[in-house]
Design brief:
Number of strands of chain A: 0
Shape of chain A: globular
Structural class of chain A: mainly alpha
Oligomer: heterodimer
Order of helices and strands of chain B: EHEHEEHHHEHEEEEHEEEHHEEEHEEH
Number of domains of chain A: 1
Largest interface: A-B, 30 and 28 residues
Distance between the termini of chain A: 40 Å
Number of domains of chain B: 1
CATH superfamily of chain B: FAD/NAD(P)-binding domain
Largest sheet of chain B: 7 strands, mixed
Order of helices and strands of chain A: HHHHHH
Shape of chain B: globular
Chain lengths: 133, 546
């Protein structure tokens, strides 16, 4: 699996602002574990989808996804979500993108024991946990 | 051969109570449970694998492997489903059953819930019927469930609708900022509200501690054992008598008959870590308390030359009328923080719309909700016009997790005989037993009521000062799930029901069903207290008769 692309993609889905973005909180670790356990039958599907994102970036900008400007990255993902594709996808782009968005949110917002949400950062961000208690 | 006075199959909300009443009456009881006894640590706090949000697994059984069901969608396509999938309509498989991990809302049904056909007439295509008993008959047993398990609440605001002789033994959960807002909104609308009754120790009760207001009621186990299921109340009482044997890890294959076709016991697989044995046990009376899907499955799988279509199924009634609840959900964005992190989170309800709604059959209760973990909120509660990713999504979670108000409630299911449990002809579980096959939907009248209640939810949130309101309503689906009921309903006419008012299966002297299967209708309320009240009533009858 292309971990460099994955890192850039999850940070585009849940970007850094005053609070950390997805990668910094461990979402890639969450995804790698999930794709080796509960979703192991989907690992190849997922990896193929990531490569297809990379292909879209090259078709649009002649660059790797990780080297695009933030707005360009967002544009590539929006196009995929809307079915506006420049390349032939070997997997369903809708199904892949839906899985990507859901699993990234799971890593960011679920319990830290799963690998993401390090330091319960999203729970403090949302107010689910009071950092002073 | 093991011999008992009574064998009870299933240790959930009903089975645990029947075991307690019979054991305390001096009967020698075998309580059979297919799952294990689960500790607090066993249940855990996995936000993605629990009974409320079961994305990759769940935490109260049954195991994902070897326990399939078959689900038939409304278009007639069938597929095999695993226990954590929504279409499996799981409840739980452990000591205490669903009560091990439930939210523990302790509602009584409304008196009109027992006479739906008389009150509304029978909609075309529905099997709507009156109960063979009234609210007044069940009232003392509701009281018994509230006091013997331990319920918190205040029934006085709605005593004119759902009369009671005695209030709850414990005071209600404290109000939150959301409660105050919803109370103001209800006041503007002229709606009556009440606290939400819960089987939770708001104060120490029966030698167990009080609730510590953590955020993990529904879907999880309680850290201080202050949530009252059967596993920490009536089952320990049953075991303390010395008259009750609890056999966990025991999967019943069939209900057995003697040479004349009368029930005389059960055959089950009993597993330990090292081996599995097939055991026959004999008893004067057998009580099936496996929940609406598994109880029906066991009766249908218990075929013989005397009963070729299964026990109690001479008139093709076992497994029909599977019902639960549709849950309309409404959300509103408040202008201030309404979340204070104090569990359980559910505090205020209105029963204003359970009945007498123009053009609607039935209706339902509306209440605020248990605290949702953030991933649950992300899946369930975001506005439909919000982007699903990017900075806008993250910032909505950041700014509004504590400002979104939640209103939802169970809508009275109008039963459809085609919403049903049968047994699949080809798919078997790991024991080789044919599995449950679920098909059909609720009746369209239920969807009309759900739509009406969705609108009431939005109305309440608007009146409570929300600047933006959104909602969902599930549409025409099969509605069993954790509130599953109705598959062996009680009644006077054996052609239209499976048991009599005591849960005794028509045509049998010593075979009973006691669980949500008995519900003729399932109320516009969480059904567990009604399951418990019926269990106390049936158990007293069985204790007298055997």
């Amino acid at each position: 699996m292309n971990l460099e692309t994955l890192r850039a993609v999850v940070d585009c889905l849940i970007p850094r602002d005053a609070f950390p973005g997805a990668y910094e909180t461990g979402v890639c670790d969450y995804l790698v574990t999930l794709l080796a356990t509960d979703l192991k039958n989907e690992a190849e599907f997922f990896s193929t989808g990531l490569d297809a994102i990379e292909g879209e970036a090259h078709a649009r900008f002649g660059k790797s996804f990780v080297n695009l400007l933030s707005d360009q990255q967002t544009g590539v993902l929006e196009s995929i979500e809307n079915g506006d594709l420049r390349t032939n996808w070997p997997v369903s782009p809708q199904r892949f993108f839906d899985m990507l968005v859901r699993t990234t949110a799971e890593g960011f917002y679920s319990d830290p024991q799963q690998g993401g949400n390090r330091g319960s950062v999203s729970w403090v961000m949302t107010g689910f946990e009071d950092p002073n208690s | 051969m093991r011999e008992y006075d009574a064998i009870i199959i299933g240790s959930g909300a009903a089975g645990g109570i029947v075991a307690c009443v019979l054991a305390e009456a001096g009967k020698h009881v075998l309580l059979v449970e297919r799952g294990p006894s689960l500790s607090f640590a066993d249940v855990g706090r996995d936000h993605l694998r629990n009974q409320r949000l079961a994305i990759y697994g769940h935490n109260a059984g049954p195991e994902l492997r070897g326990n399939p069901r078959v689900f038939v969608d409304p278009e007639g396509r069938s597929r095999i489903v695993k226990p954590h999938e929504l279409d499996y309509h799981n409840n739980a498989a452990c000591v205490g059953g669903g009560t091990r991990v439930y939210g523990a809302q302790a509602w009584r049904f409304h008196p009109d819930d027992f006479r739906m056909a008389t009150k509304y007439g029978v909609p075309g295509g529905s099997s709507l019927a009156d109960w063979p008993i009234t609210y007044e008959t069940l009232e003392p047993f509701y009281e018994r469930a509230e006091w013997e398990l331990g319920a918190a609440g205040d029934g006085s605001p709605i005593n004119h609708e759902i009369p009671r002789r005695r209030n709850y033994p414990l005071p209600p959960v404290p109000p939150s900022p959301q409660t105050e807002a919803l109370l103001r909104g209800a006041g503007r609308l002229g709606w009556i509200t009440s606290p939400v009754p819960l089987l939770i120790n708001t104060q120490p009760y029966q030698n167990r501690a009080a609730c510590v207001q953590c955020k993990y009621c529904v879907g999880f186990a309680c850290p201080t054992d202050a949530k009252n299921g059967t596993q920490n109340t009536v089952i320990p009482r049953a075991l303390a008598t010395g008259n009750c044997e609890l056999q966990t890890g025991a999967v019943v294959i069939s209900i057995d008959l003697d040479g004349r076709g009368a029930v005389n016991g059960v055959t089950y697989f009993a597993s330990t870590n090292s081996d599995t044995q097939q055991i026959q046990a004999r008893a004067k009376v057998v009580i099936v308390s496996g929940g609406a899907i598994e109880s029906a499955r066991l009766l249908l799988n218990s075929t013989s030359k005397y009963h070729p279509h299964g026990l109690g199924n001479e008139h093709d009634q076992v497994g029909r009328n599977l019902q639960g609840h549709l849950y309309p959900r409404a959300y509103g964005l408040a202008d201030t923080r309404v979340f204070n992190g104090v569990g359980p989170g559910v505090t205020i309800a209105t029963t204003q719309f359970n009945h007498d709604n123009p053009g609607i059959v039935g209706g339902g209760m509306l209440a605020d909700d248990f605290i949702k973990p953030p991933i649950d909120f992300w899946y369930d509660s975001l506005p439909p016009d919000l982007p699903r990713w990017g900075l806008a999504n993250k910032q909505f979670m950041r700014d509004n997790f504590t400002r979104v108000m939640h209103v939802r409630g169970p809508v009275q299911d109008i039963p459809n005989p085609d919403g049903r449990v049968t047994v699949d002809k080809t798919v078997r579980d790991k024991w080789g037993i044919p599995v449950a096959r679920l098909s059909g939907t609720t009746h369209p009248a239920t969807v009309d009521a759900a739509e009406f209640m969705r609108e009431r939810g939005e109305e309440w949130l608007c009146a409570s000062g929300c600047e933006k309101v959104w909602s969902t309503q599930p549409g025409l689906i099969l509605s069993g799930r954790q509130h599953q009921a109705g598959t062996c309903r009680m009644g006077k006419d054996p052609r239209m029901s499976v048991t009599n008012e005591w849960g005794r299966v028509h045509g049998h002297d010593n075979l009973f069903v006691v669980d949500g299967s008995l519900h003729v209708t399932n109320g516009g309320f969480n059904p567990v207290l009604t399951i418990m009240a019926l269990a106390f009533r049936s158990a007293e009858y069985i204790a007298r008769a055997f």
